[in-house]
C-alpha cells in the first residue's frame, strides 16, 4: 500500500453507513438515473404536498433555470424542528459554548421549537411577511439559529452578514436585497473582545431606508442607542409573543436565504438558495459525509455568517435530528487548547474545521493538543480551502491520534452543500485530496477552450449536471448568474476552481483560477479590495493579488500607486490598511502593500495580473513574456522594491 494512502480504518468500516461497494453502486445510479435517484432521496425530508416533478434544469445560456421537486410544498423549519418533537423532543438540538468557557447551554428540540415559534410570531407582529428579506447580523449565539429558523417558518428570506463585516459592507448587502428588518445584538464577544455590532448596524442603517424595524439581542449588556419606533429588544418582543406558530406551507422553490459572496468582478453577489432541494441536499450530505448517527455529538466550527454555518451547523444537522454544537469563541482563547477542551467537555465525536485553524494551532506544537483526551472523536473534517498535506498529516496524527479519518470536503457558497469529498466508510484517503464526487455530482475538467479532458489530468473544474442544493440565481440579477457560471464553458456549471485528477480518479483542488482569493478560508474578490483602496483620496491606482501565506493559505498583496505629490510613508501604509478594514472588514486587511510608481500594463491599458502574482509569490524566474507591456521597466522596479512579504 502506498504510504500516502490511508485506508478506511476497520473500526469505521464496521459501523459506517456507506462502504465502498455501496458508494459505487449508489454513485452509478445517481448519475445514470438522476431523476429516479433523487425522487427516492427527496423523501428523506417531510413534504406537505408530495412532489411529482423531480428535476427541471437547463444550463442553456439563453434559458438557465434550475428547479427541483418544484410542485411539492414543505416548511424547512418544520423539518428541522416539529417533525422531531414526538421522537426526540428532549434530545439536545444545540449545544451552545460561549466565548468564555464558563458559559454553555444545552437546548432541546422542544425548547428550540418553542423559541423559534415565539420569535416567528414576534417577527410577524413587527410586520414581516412571507417573501420579505430579513438581515441577520449576529454573533454565534443561539438566537442566530432561532432567527434563521423563524424566518424559514414564516417564509421570510434571511440574509446573514458575518459579524466581522464593516457598516459599509453591511449596508451594501441590506440595500441590494432591500431587507425590511435587521436582527442584531448590542455587542458580540470573541476572544474576550467586544465587537460593536449595534453601533455598526446604526451606522449602516443611515443608508438603508428599507429597514423599518431592528430587533436587538442583549448579549453583553453594553450600552447601545435605541431608536424610538424602529428598535426593539429581542427579549421584550418574544416575551409578548405566543409559542404557537403554525409553519407556513411553502413551495419547494420558495427562497430560503440569500448569502453574499465575492466574485472576480464587482460587488459581492447575493447567492439565492431555495427550500426543498437545498434541505434534501444539506441533510443528505451531512448524514453521509459525516457518517452521522444518533448519539453523535457534531461540531462544525464555522460561523453562521458563511455557507458552512448555514448548511452544516443549522439546516443539515437539525433536519437530521442531530446534536449540533455552536461555538461563539475563537481557537486560541483563553488558550490554544480551546478546541480540544471543548471536544472533551461536550464529548464531541465529529469535528469539522478549516485548514487555516489547523495551521495556526499546529504552530503552537503538540503539547496543547496532547494535554487533552479527545477520546470521544471518531471523525475529522476540513473545509474552505485546500489543506496542505503537512497540515493534513498533523491533524490526522496529533488531533485524531491516527484513529480518525479526515473528510476533506470541497464545495462553495453556490453549491449549497458538499460536492467532492471522501465518505469515511468508503474512501481511502490521500492527504490533500478531496477525493471523489458525492452522489449525483459529475465533475469535469476542461481546458481553456472548454474541451473536456480525460484520464489523469489538470484543468478547470466544471460540473456537468445539476444537484438539488445548487444556487438558483443571483438575487435580483439573473443575467449575472448566467454570465458568471454558465457562459465560460457551454453546458456546464463553472466553479472558478482549478483541479487535478489523478490516476485513481481522485480530485485535487488547486485553488481559484479567477481573481478571487481565499484568505483564511474567507473568500475575497481582489476587485473589492482594489475599489476600497482607490476610494482613499491619496490612492491613484491599486492592484491586488493573492500570495502564499503560511497560516492564512493566501495573503492579500496590494500594489498601490499614489496620486502625484503624495509620499509613500510607513504612516500612510498603516492608514491604508486601517482604511480597508473600515471599508470592508478586518478579513480584508492587506498583508503587504507595495508602493508602485507604475503598474505593468499592456498597451491597451490592461493590468497584467499574472506578472503581479509572480512578483508577489517571489517567483521572478517565471514572469513570462513582458514584451507586450507598454513600459517593461516597471517590472524591474517592482522586483527591486519588493518588500519582504
Ligand atoms: O476555491 C474553493 C475553496 O473555497 C471556494 C469556495 O468558497 P466559499 O464559497 O466561501 O465556500 C467555502 C465553504 C464551502 C472554492 O471555490 N474551497 C472550499 N473547500 C475546499 C476548497 N478548496 C480546496 N479544498 C476544499 N476542501
TrEMBL record:
Tell me which residues bind Mg(2+). 534, 536, 539
User: Mind telling me which Gene3D superfamilies this protein's record contains?
Assistant: 3.30.300.30, N-terminal domain of ligase-like (3.40.50.12780)
Which molecular function GO terms apply here? Answer: acetate-CoA ligase activity; AMP binding; ATP binding; metal ion binding
Residues annotated to bind ATP: 384-386, 408-413, 497, 512, 523
Name the source's superkingdom.
Bacteria
For the keyword ATP-binding, the answer is yes
Q: What Gene Ontology cellular component terms go with this record?
A: cytosol
Functional summary from the UniProt entry: Catalyzes the conversion of acetate into acetyl-CoA (AcCoA), an essential intermediate at the junction of anabolic and catabolic pathways. AcsA undergoes a two-step reaction. In the first half reaction, AcsA combines acetate with ATP to form acetyl-adenylate (AcAMP) intermediate. In the second half reaction, it can then transfer the acetyl group from AcAMP to the sulfhydryl group of CoA, forming the product AcCoA.
Name the UniProt record assigns to this protein: Acetyl-coenzyme A synthetase
Amino acid at each position: 500500500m502506498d504510504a500516502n494512502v490511508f485506508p478506511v480504518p476497520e473500526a469505521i468500516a464496521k459501523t459506517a453507513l456507506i462502504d465502498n461497494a455501496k458508494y459505487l453502486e449508489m454513485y452509478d445510479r445517481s448519475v445514470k438515473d438522476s431523476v429516479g435517484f433523487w425522487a427516492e432521496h427527496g423523501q428523506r425530508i417531510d413534504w406537505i404536498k408530495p412532489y411529482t416533478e423531480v428535476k427541471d434544469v437547463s444550463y442553456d445560456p439563453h434559458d438557465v433555470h434550475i428547479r427541483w421537486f418544484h410542485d411539492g410544498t414543505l416548511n424547512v423549519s418544520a423539518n428541522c424542528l416539529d417533525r422531531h418533537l414526538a421522537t426526540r423532543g428532549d434530545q439536545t438540538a444545540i449545544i451552545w459554548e460561549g466565548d468564555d468557557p464558563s458559559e454553555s447551554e444545552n437546548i432541546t428540540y422542544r425548547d428550540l421549537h418553542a423559541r423559534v415559534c415565539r420569535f416567528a410570531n414576534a417577527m410577524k407582529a413587527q410586520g414581516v411577511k412571507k417573501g420579505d428579506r430579513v438581515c441577520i447580523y449576529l454573533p454565534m449565539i443561539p438566537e442566530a439559529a432561532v432567527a434563521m429558523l423563524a424566518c424559514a417558518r414564516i417564509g421570510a428570506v434571511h440574509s446573514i452578514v458575518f459579524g466581522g463585516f464593516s457598516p459599509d459592507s453591511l449596508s451594501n448587502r441590506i440595500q441590494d436585497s432591500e431587507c425590511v428588518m435587521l436582527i442584531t445584538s448590542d455587542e458580540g464577544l470573541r476572544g474576550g473582545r467586544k465587537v460593536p455590532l449595534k453601533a455598526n448596524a446604526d451606522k449602516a442603517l443611515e443608508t438603508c431606508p428599507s429597514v423599518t424595524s431592528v430587533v436587538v439581542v442583549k448579549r453583553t449588556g453594553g450600552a447601545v442607542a435605541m431608536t424610538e419606533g424602529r428598535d426593539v429588544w429581542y427579549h421584550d418582543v418574544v416575551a409578548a409573543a405566543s409559542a404557537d406558530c403554525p409553519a407556513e406551507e411553502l413551495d419547494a422553490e420558495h427562497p430560503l436565504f440569500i448569502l453574499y459572496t465575492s466574485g472576480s468582478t464587482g460587488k459581492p453577489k447575493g447567492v439565492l438558495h431555495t427550500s426543498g432541494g437545498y434541505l434534501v441536499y444539506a441533510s443528505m450530505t451531512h448524514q453521509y459525509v459525516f457518517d452521522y448517527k444518533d448519539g453523535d455529538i457534531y461540531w462544525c466550527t464555522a460561523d453562521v455568517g458563511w455557507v458552512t454555518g448555514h448548511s452544516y451547523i443549522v439546516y443539515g444537522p437539525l433536519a437530521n435530528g442531530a446534536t449540533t454544537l455552536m461555538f461563539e469563541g475563537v481557537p486560541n482563547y483563553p488558550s490554544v487548547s480551546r478546541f480540544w477542551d471543548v471536544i472533551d467537555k461536550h464529548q464531541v465525536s465529529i469535528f469539522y474545521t478549516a485548514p487555516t485553524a489547523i495551521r495556526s494551532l499546529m504552530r503552537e506544537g503538540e503539547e496543547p493538543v496532547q494535554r487533552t483526551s479527545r477520546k470521544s472523536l471518531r471523525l475529522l473534517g476540513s473545509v474552505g480551502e485546500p489543506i496542505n498535506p503537512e497540515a493534513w498529516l498533523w491533524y490526522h496524527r496529533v488531533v485524531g491520534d491516527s484513529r480518525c479519518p479526515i473528510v476533506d470536503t470541497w464545495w462553495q457558497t453556490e453549491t449549497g452543500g458538499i460536492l467532492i469529498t471522501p465518505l469515511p466508510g468508503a474512501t481511502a484517503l490521500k492527504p490533500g485530496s478531496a477525493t471523489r464526487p458525492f452522489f449525483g455530482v459529475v465533475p469535469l475538467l476542461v481546458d481553456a477552450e472548454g474541451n473536456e479532458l480525460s484520464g489523469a489530468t489538470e484543468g478547470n473544474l466544471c460540473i456537468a449536471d445539476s444537484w438539488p442544493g445548487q444556487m438558483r440565481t443571483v438575487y435580483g440579477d439573473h443575467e449575472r448568474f448566467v454570465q458568471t457560471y454558465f457562459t465560460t464553458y457551454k453546458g456546464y456549471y463553472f466553479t472558478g476552481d482549478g483541479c487535478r485528477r489523478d490516476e485513481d480518479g481522485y480530485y485535487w483542488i488547486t485553488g481559484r483560477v479567477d481573481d478571487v482569493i481565499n484568505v483564511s478560508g474567507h473568500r475575497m474578490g481582489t476587485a473589492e479590495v482594489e475599489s476600497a483602496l482607490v476610494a482613499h483620496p491619496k490612492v491613484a491606482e491599486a492592484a491586488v493579488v493573492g500570495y502564499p501565506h503560511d497560516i492564512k493559505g493566501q495573503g492579500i498583496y496590494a500594489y498601490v500607486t499614489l496620486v502625484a505629490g503624495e509620499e509613500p510613508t510607513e504612516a500612510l501604509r498603516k492608514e491604508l490598511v486601517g482604511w480597508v478594514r473600515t471599508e470592508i472588514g478586518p478579513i480584508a486587511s492587506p498583508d503587504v502593500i507595495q508602493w508602485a510608481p507604475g503598474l505593468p500594463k499592456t498597451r491597451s491599458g490592461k493590468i497584467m495580473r499574472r506578472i503581479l502574482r509572480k512578483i508577489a509569490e517571489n517567483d521572478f524566474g517565471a514572469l513570462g513574456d513582458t514584451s507586450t507591456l507598454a513600459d517593461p521597466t516597471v517590472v524591474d522596479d517592482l522586483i527591486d522594491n519588493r518588500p519582504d512579504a
